[in-house]
């Protein structure tokens, strides 16, 4: 049996790049690279991690399990630890990105979200999605945001990266032929969810007490997206398994913890920067979602 390539093996193969460290927030692993960063002639074997490749330019042949697929247009390719694969380039220019991750990484917040539940990652299913120009632009935007976030110093960037990874999977899911042909309404649900999560994430980090959070309630997001709040809740729950309020509460809690840890702002200043009308409301919210008051949390981390 051929040796399974580990994440450590992958990094050792990066010629002249032994200085690269595993980017890890303590639960699972995630990283992203431009496709030209590594040699495209990977050997045909299994890996112990998941991988998503966005091919924006370049042609080649994907050898996957016992099949070979010719790629001559933009595409997404999904690989999993169970099935060996390799990429054989047939053109000099190879552009795009790929990300690699463990299942522990994507499940670290929501254990109900498993990539194994989705057809692109299952044995015997189609691992390739061919893309039109619009889909290529949309997915390229997400990968660029991931590259940008990977180089940031934001303390909760891996939480943000998990959301981007889920967005890629959901964007792919709505393009998956067998699913897309069954229910066109899935497209609208994923589109609304994508824009909601993007609006939510783009508000962070809070860097100035004079520029408070603008969107904090379900009503705020529904108004911005021009949909009824009940419909927004419904589609977000359908796509992600969590309702809109849970996503908002989680992100505000994470930002509140970051501000308490990394700034000298008072609890009152943090409360107003997160658009709470009264500091007491923020204290109640924080205690409900974190399990202790803001002052107790700050004392704990000092």
The CATH architecture term of the largest domain is Sandwich
> How can the largest sheet be summarized?
5 strands, antiparallel
General shape: elongated
CATH topology of the largest domain: Jelly Rolls
Name the helix and strand elements from N-terminus to C-terminus, one letter apiece.
HEEEEEEEHEHHHHHHHHHH
Strand order of the largest sheet: 1-7-2-5-8
Q: What is the CATH level 1 assignment of the largest domain?
A: Mainly Beta
Tally the beta strands.
Answer: 8
Output mean pLDDT: 83
| CATH homologous superfamily label of the largest domain | Jelly Rolls
Q: What is the helix content?
A: 40-55%
Quickly give the structural class: alpha+beta
Task: Supply the number of helical segments.
Answer: 12
The protein's oligomeric status is: single chain
The CA-CA distance between the termini, in Å, is 51 Å
> Which percent range describes the beta-strand content?
5-15%
Radius of gyration: 21 Å
Query: pLDDT under 50 segments (min length 5)?
Result: 16-20, 179-186
């Amino acid at each position: 049996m051929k040796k399974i390539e580990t994440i450590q093996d992958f990094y050792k193969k990066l010629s002249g790049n032994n200085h690269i460290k595993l980017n890890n927030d303590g639960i699972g692993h995630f990283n992203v690279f431009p496709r030209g960063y590594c040699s495209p002639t990977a050997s045909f074997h299994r890996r112990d991690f998941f991988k998503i490749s966005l091919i924006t330019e370049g042609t080649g042949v994907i050898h996957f399990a016992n099949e070979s697929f010719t790629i001559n247009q933009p595409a997404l390719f999904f690989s999993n630890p169970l099935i060996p694969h390799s990429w054989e380039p047939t053109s000099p220019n190879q552009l795009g990105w790929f990300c690699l991750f463990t299942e522990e990484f994507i499940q670290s917040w929501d254990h109900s979200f498993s990539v194994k539940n989705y057809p692109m990652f299952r044995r015997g299913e189609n691992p390739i999605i061919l893309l039109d120009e619009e889909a290529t632009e949309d997915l390229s935007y997400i990968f660029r945001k991931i590259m940008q976030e990977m180089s940031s110093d934001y303390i909760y960037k891996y939480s943000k990266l998990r959301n981007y990874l889920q967005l890629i999977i959901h964007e792919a899911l709505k393009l998956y032929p067998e699913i897309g042909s069954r229910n066109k309404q899935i497209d609208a649900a994923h589109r609304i969810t994508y824009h909601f999560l993007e609006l939510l994430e783009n508000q962070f980090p809070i860097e100035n007490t004079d520029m408070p959070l603008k969107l904090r309630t379900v009503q705020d997001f529904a108004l911005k997206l021009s949909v009824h709040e009940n419909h927004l809740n419904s589609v977000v729950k359908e796509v992600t398994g969590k309702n809109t309020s849970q996503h908002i509460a989680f992100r505000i809690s994470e930002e509140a913890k970051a501000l308490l840890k990394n700034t000298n702002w008072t609890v009152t200043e943090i409360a107003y920067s997160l658009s709470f009308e009264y500091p007491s409301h923020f204290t109640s919210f924080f205690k409900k979602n974190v399990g202790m008051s803001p002052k107790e949390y700050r004392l704990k981390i000092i």
